[in-house]
Amino acid sequence: MSSEKLKSHWDLKYERGLPSLTGPDPFFLSAYERFVKPSFPNAGSAVDLACGLGRHALWLASREWRVSGVDLSDVAIEKLRT
Fold first, then answer.
1. Residues with Cβ < 8 Å from 26, sequence gap 6 or more?
2. What does the pLDDT average to over 3-31?
3. CA gap 62, 75 in Å, rounded
4. Left if phi > 0, otherwise alpha if psi is -120 to 50, otherwise beta: which for 17?
């Protein structure tokens, strides 16, 4: 799939605002508790690649992490900014 088609595909998904794309993934939460939290008890900095609507970036930020999010979809990034 070309990068433009891929971008259009994800833009459409984020325009629809699917609920499965908004809450943190259970595996992410489990991995955070098991591996990240013990190593970084005072938070830190993170980069969320393919962040989408920022479900993990926002969750980390709510726990005092400094997070940068990057995504191919302009729709997702604009929604995340709001």
1. none
2. 91
3. 22
4. left
Cβ pair 70, 32 in contact under 8 A:
no
- Report d(CA 82, CA 73) in Å as an integer: 15
CA 36 – CA 53 distance, rounded (Å): 22
Residues 1-30: b if buried by 16+ CB within 10 A, e if exposed: eeeeeebeebbebbeeeeeebeeeeeeeee
CA 57 to chain centre: 5
Q: What is the pLDDT of residues 21-78, one digit of tens each?
A: 788 999 999 999 999 999 999 999 999 999 999 999 999 999 999 999 999 999 999 9
